[in-house]
UniProtKB/TrEMBL annotation:
SUPFAM superfamilies: Periplasmic binding protein-like II (SSF53850). SMART domains: PBPb. It comes from Nocardiopsis rhodophaea. This is ABC transporter substrate-binding protein. Coiled coil: none annotated. Residues 72-300 form the Solute-binding protein family 3/N-terminal domain. The keyword DNA-binding does not apply. Keywords: Signal. Residues 1-33 form the signal peptide. Pfam families: SBP_bac_3.
Length: 314
């Protein structure tokens, strides 16, 4: 999409400053996100590092006209999956490393972002229906989703199990028969644990009791409280939960089945997908990408080449 009839992108350049170091403020949020506590959640943020992202004229020229006219991207997000995306204590502001990355990418495109909380399993349908311009919520790219929408890779994560410190219920991810396991609804981990439970039953053992939660924070809290014996989630989420609970949790085994996260865009909107991929690439090249990941402590999942609809193995 061109920008004919509008001021040249260079004439509309403006610096955008995105706060990094939100992790420091976010560490105090876990108890609040799980249904308690209070406070403003912003203590110390004024002294956190910042990154300035300037609009790039060439990248902005890639943006379809309808989004240039709007001047923003409306983004569907399930803000309950720290550290990828979650609500600050004010209950209004979405934060997380995925949020920082897409905010910075939009800045390269000379666009603002408007984040709209949504149930995770309504994000893809919301993009398809035009409710959201982009879906961003630690969405793993797989063949089923690629049949429904365009996806732009920008990060890679595996699955990690975790349990109470000391593993009091002796959970073995490879033999969790008879255990109670928590997962967030509609994630790839649901099918993972279902397949494990089916194998238990096929082997003549008790199946796994699978507790599905709309919000990851509630799934995590169920393990902290002892209601469930273990949980599994994306690697950065599991690591973040262990860190935030102050020694109440520990990871089990190694991560597995690493796969890329993708920004979700409508199938009919390949030009926007290409623009976002180019913006992510620019962030990698100028160092902004690595700075954001390092600030959140999730640099292990960094990738080097964002792509639209990358090949993935099922």
């Amino acid at each position: 999409m061109t920008i004919a009839g509008h001021p040249a992108p260079a004439a509309r350049r403006r610096g955008r400053i995105y706060r990094m170091g939100a992790l420091a403020a976010g560490l105090a949020l876990f108890a609040t996100a799980c249904g308690g506590g209070g406070g403003d959640g912003d203590a110390g943020q004024e002294t956190t590092p910042k990154v300035e992202v300037e609009a790039d004229a060439e990248l902005a020229a890639m943006v379809p006209q309808e989004y240039r006219d709007a001047g923003k991207l409306v983004i569907g997000v399930n803000a309950e999956y720290p550290p990828g995306e979650f609500m600050k204590a004010d209950g209004k502001t979405v934060t997380g490393f995925n949020v920082d990355l897409l905010d910075a990418a939009a800045g390269k495109l000379d666009l603002e972002t408007e984040w709209k909380p949504s149930p995770f399993d309504a994000i893809i349908t919301g993009v398809q229906a035009g409710k959201f311009d982009v879906g961003m919520s630690s969405v793993t790219i797989n063949e089923e989703r690629l049949e429904q929408v365009n996806m732009v890779s920008y990060y890679s994560a595996g699955t990690q199990w975790f349990t109470q410190k000391g593993n009091p219920q002796s959970v073995d991810p490879d033999n969790a028969c008879g255990k109670r396991v928590a997962v967030q609804k509609a994630t790839i981990q649901v099918e993972d644990v279902k397949e494990r439970s089916e194998k238990c039953v096929d082997d003549g053992k008790a199946g796994i009791t699978i507790e599905q939660y709309q919000e990851q924070t509630h799934a995590t809290e169920s393990v902290v409280s002892g209601k469930n014996d273990a949980a599994l989630a994306d690697t950065p989420v599991a690591g973040y939960a262990v860190k935030q609970t102050g020694g109440k949790l520990e990871t089990l085994g190694e991560q597995y089945e690493s796969a890329p996260y993708g920004a979700v865009i409508n199938k009919d909107d390949t030009e926007l997908a290409e623009a976002i991929a180019a913006a992510y690439t620019s962030l990698i090249e100028d160092g902004t990408y690595s700075s954001i990941l390092e600030e959140w402590g999730v640099e292990a999942g960094a990738i080097t080449t964002p792509a639209v609809n990358p090949d993935v193995d099922e």
